[in-house]
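A.,

Following up on our hallway conversation. Structure tokens first:
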């Protein structure tokens, strides 16, 4: 329920953390949203994605922004495509957001 707190705790007790999540910036998810017009709804419009009472859906770009705000270093980032193809990507790349159905990060503290 608290992605920010979980990240801080992971890096409080260890030098590194590995985090994985479904990337909602993936092109198939974007297409589904565009065609269906459906997204999780929240009454709390003043909240960021990581602060909402709803499930915490995010993109690679959202996650990198949160890491920057918390002073967390992204040491490596991988995108995982259907069929298990894994590719190391630059987390700031727009392409990383589009092609990776899953994201895997190696994080550290600055």
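Then the amino acids I'd put at each of the 110 positions:
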């Amino acid at each position: 329920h608290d992605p920010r707190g979980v990240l801080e705790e992971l890096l409080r007790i260890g030098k590194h953390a590995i985090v994985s999540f479904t990337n909602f910036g993936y092109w198939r998810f974007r297409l589904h949203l565009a065609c269906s017009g459906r997204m999780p709804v929240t009454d709390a419009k003043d909240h960021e994605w990581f602060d909402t009472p709803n499930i915490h859906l995010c993109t690679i770009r959202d996650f990198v922004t949160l890491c920057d705000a918390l002073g967390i270093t992204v040491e490596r980032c991988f995108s995982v495509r259907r069929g298990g193809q894994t590719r190391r990507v630059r987390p700031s790349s727009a392409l990383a957001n589009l092609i990776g159905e899953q994201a895997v990060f190696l994080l550290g503290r600055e």
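The chain has a mean pLDDT of 86. Curious whether your intuition agrees with the design.

B.
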